[in-house]
Amino acid sequence: MATLLDGEPKSKTSSLKTNPVLCNGTTGPDDTEFYHFVLEGLSKKQKALHPKYLYDDEGSLLFEDICALDEYYVTRTELAIMEQNIHQMAAAIGPNAIVLEPGSGAGVKIKLLLKNLQSAAAYVPIEISSDALKRSTDILQKDFPSLDIHPVCGDFTSRISLPSDLPPGRRIVYFPGSTIGNLGVSEYVRLLATFAHLAGDDGGLLVGVDLDKDPDILFKAYNDSKGVTAAFILNLLTRINRELGGTFDLSKFDYISVYNEQFHRMEMRVYSKVDQLVHVNGHSFPFSQGEYIFIEQSCKFRIASFSNSLKAHGFRVQNTWMDDKKLFAVLYCVRDGRPATLYDPDDIAKAYMETWSFSDQLFQMLTPNGLLQQPIEGLVGWFVSVYHYHTTV
Question: Least enclosed by CB within 10 Å: which of 43, 114, 137, 157?
Fold first, then answer.
C-alpha cells in the first residue's frame, strides 16, 4: 500500500502532479536485512559488504559530491554526451513516454531528458534513500509542475512494484551513471531481466556505461585527492557502528581502490591497518593487518559484449553515443518483443563468469595488438546469449 513520507497528498486544486510515495516494503533496506547482510558478509573468508548500504542519507550526499570532483570524469562526460545528442535521444524515445528511473538519486541528468521529451506521460523515480527521493522530487515538482510524478521508495536490486495508477504509455527505463557496473554478476543478470520486465514488450532502455580504459585514469577517478570517495566508502562502517552497535575504529582502517585486470573493474576496498577485533552487536570479527573488506566494484564495459548481454535479455541496441575519447557511452535499446522472464540467475551468472574468464585468456593469447578483440568478444557474447536464451525462455 502506498504511504506518504511527508504528510498528506497534495490537494486536488494544486498545480503539482506528484503522487503519494509508493514504498516497496520499507523506505530502504530494513534493519533486519542490513544486520543479516553485515553478519553474513563479515563472516566470509573474503569479507565483503553490499554496496547498496552505502546510500544512507549521508552516503547519498557524499556521492553527489563525488560526481562533482575533477578526477571523476563519469558524470560530466555522460552529461556532455547527453547535451550533444539529447534531441536524437528524445526522438528515439518518442512522445508520451513513461520514464522509469531506478536509483534516481539527485535527479540531475533526468532534468535534461524530461525537458526535451515530447509530452512525457509520467516520471517514476525509484530510490532507496527516502531523503534523496524527497529532495529530488520536490525540485522536479517545481521545474516540471505539469509532469505526473509517481515516486517509489525501494531497492531496485529487489523486485519493484510499480504504482497501479500509472497512465497509459510506452515505458522507458532510464539508468545512467554506469551504475550497472557496480553489481555482482548475479545481480547484473537479474537487473537486466528486471529492466525487460519493467519496459514491457514494446518499451525501451536508455543506459549509460563506463568503457574500459587506461587504468591510470581509473585510479585517479576512484582515489580522489580530496578523499571524498574514501569518506563515502568509510561512511558504511560509521553506519554499522550507529545502527548495528558496531565498534569499527575508522582510524585503524584505510580505503583504496585498485584495478582488477582480469575482470576489467575497479574494486573499492577497506584495509585493516593493524591486527584487531571488531564487534557488531555481540558478534566478533578478527582482522589481520592488511586484510580488506570488499565494498564495491565498478566494471568497465566493451560495447560488443554489453550489447550481447542486452540481446540475451530481449533488448536490441538501436543507438550508441560516445564522447570523442571513448571514455563513456550511452545506449538506447528497444525491446524485441520476447516475453520478459524473472528468474533465479545463479547458474547463468556462473556461465557468465566462466565465459568472461575464457574470453580474457583468448585476448591474451590471440590479440597482442588488439586486432581480433571485437570479433572474439562478439563470439563470446553470442555464446552467452544463446546459453541464456535456451535456459530462461
Answer: 43
